[in-house]
Amino acid sequence: MTAQDPVDGGLAEPEELEPPQGTLALELDGPAATRADWERAAAAVLHKSRRLGEADPDSTVWDKLTRTTLDGIAVSPLGTPELTESLDLGTRPVAPGGRDLRVEVRGDDPAVLNRELLADLEGGATSLWLHAGPGTDIAALLDGVLLDLAPVVLEPAGDPVATARGLLDHLGDTTPAPGTNLGAPADAADDDLVAVARLALDAGVAAVVVDASAVHDRGASEVQELGWSVLAAVRVLRVLEGAGIEVDVAAPLLEFRYAATDEQFLTIAKLRAARLLWARVLQVCAAAPAQQRQHALTSRPMMSRYEPWVNMVRTTVAAFAATVGGADAVTVQPFDRPLGRPDALGRRTARNQMALLLQESHVGAVTDPAGGAWAVERLTHDLAEAGWTFLQALEKGASLDDAVAGTVAERDRQVATRRRPITGLSEYPNLAETLPQRDGEPDDVRHYGAAFEALRDEPAPAAVFLATLGPVAAHTARAMFATNLLAAGGVAVETGEYAGQPVVCVAGTDAAYDESGAETAAALREAGAKRVVVAGQARDWADDSCSLGVDAVAFLTRTREVLA
Fold first, then answer.
1. Domains in the chain: how many in total?
2. CATH number of residue 147's parent domain
3. What is the pLDDT of residues 461-512, one digit of tens each?
4. How crowded is residue 16: how many other Cβ atoms within 10 Å of its Cβ?
5. Are 365 and 513 part of one and the same domain?
6. 424 Cβ partners below 8 Å, 6+ apart?
7. Crossing angle, helix 222-242 and helix 264-284, to 10 degrees?
8. Name one GO molecular function term (predicted).
9. Tens digits of residue pLDDT in 293-332
10. What is the DSSP code string of 469-488?
11. What is the rounded CA–CA span in Å between residue 13 and residue 86?
12. Dihedral class, residue 536 (left if φ above 0, else alpha if ψ from -120 to 50, else beta)
């Protein structure tokens, strides 16, 4: 079978890959905990938090704690041997893990960019992701860069062939560092792909970047990102094979770029699944096994313009997951990227995050550290299988746009109801924060918290009055919940003496509501309140309510309309 054939069949494990050698036996003191022991311990916690009823058996914890990804894949709360009984774990393609700290070089002024990238290289970066076009002064941009040591991966703006020639002309007689890539996009015209591939073969470098992070930026799920990337790569193989470049020669010319998010296990499994899918493609094409080269980029949509310092935590988790997942190169987005052009602090912090993971935590020192972990292996398999199915659906004409739109809608719903909380934005917002000022335009992607960011961009013109019932110990929990929720929508809260605010939120216990809620609401309306909100479940005497699971965006929008 060749790359020209349709992608048929299922996702069988590639037979050419050798299983890892050796085993490790551990001796444990005392009897091992049983499944029932874990169920009993987990149930005790859920009973205490009232997530389980008194009559619910302990085994119910599996349903309560199993979460489902946006692709509908179940993620077990506990890794157990049963999860992998049907899997052949000896045939997983593995990678040595990321040791390449790659920085993004993007802008209009070659002199400024040159100063920045030299500072990055001196500060620990090991490769460059260079946005350039046919008119870019590459000589000025890369002045002082040792191109035999630091790989350059191009991101062409415009003609990919002319851009590739520009880099090769600058290289001259220099032997390019391993990992250098002329960067033709996978969706480039056929003639451009062939031309860049031939230039790359002559120069001994890679030629094509399959940029799945672009699909991620549109809101795609993990499965959609995987399926699209592999189908895009298959298209490149078909084009090159049609031009006389055999699959065995073409496959090493490709590099794959994936997004890494702060959902660490999902990111680890996605990168492992991507290698499994690529190995399967090469097997179907009867090609020799070839390692999939991966560049992981910390997700831009997961970041937030508000409380941007939290972005450091998000990107650190994402970079950790990318390295554990086996990415060859990792780019950490600066924490201030959503605010405009990152400054020296943002670039240095991003660079140091990855450097610390590699040099102090030695994250990249172990090959496939998640290998053999039951939960991760199961998730890897399920993502790969679903990705293969989605690839086949796309090849048969399914709409990527429609699939991504459905994912975006579901993610927006989960963010709005705070089932998918965003720290510093939808949870624990700080209305008094002063955002760092950055030059240039803000990030051009739609963040996962875009709806909350839009509310924060235009603070409410008036505050909500918080009317508490009973002693502090009784009303504190609901008062804090309501205050936090309102702040997430740019709405301040005032306490003390009522001063005619149009919206009042009443916070207290259920008993207090039964005793004096209706009387309190009537008095507030008589004093000028246009809308009375109850913190907790809906009450007849209240116009609105807010509690766990409420559509926060809809609630905040209604509240702000009255305040306006």
1. 2
2. 3.20.20.240
3. 999 999 999 999 999 999 999 999 999 999 999 999 999 999 999 999 999 9
4. 12
5. no
6. 304, 306, 307, 309, 310, 430
7. 30
8. methylmalonyl-CoA mutase activity
9. 999 999 999 999 999 999 999 999 999 999 999 999 999 9
10. -S-HHHHHHHHHHHHHHHHH
11. 12
12. left
84 lies in some domain: no
Q: Indicate the length of the chain as a whole number.
A: 564
Rounded-to-integer distance, Cα 450 and Cα 442, Å: 13
- The reply to whether 495 and 374 lie within a common domain is no
pTM, full prediction:
0.92
Dist CA 161 CA 509 (whole Å)? 69
CA geometry: angle at 144 spanning 141 and 145, to 5°? 80
Based on the fold, state whether residues 226 and 310 are members of the same structural domain.
Answer: yes
For the chain, the distance separating the N- and C-terminal CA atoms, rounded to the nearest angstrom, is: 66
CB 212, CB 228: distance < 8 Å? yes
Q: Which residues contact 291 (CB under 8 A, 6 or more apart)?
A: 93, 95, 275
Last residue of a domain, one of 373, 395, 417: 395
Same-domain status, 467 and 555: yes
CATH code assigned at 513: 3.40.50.280
Contact 269, 378 (CB under 8 A): no
At CA 292, angle to CA 395 and CA 165, rounded to 5?
A: 90
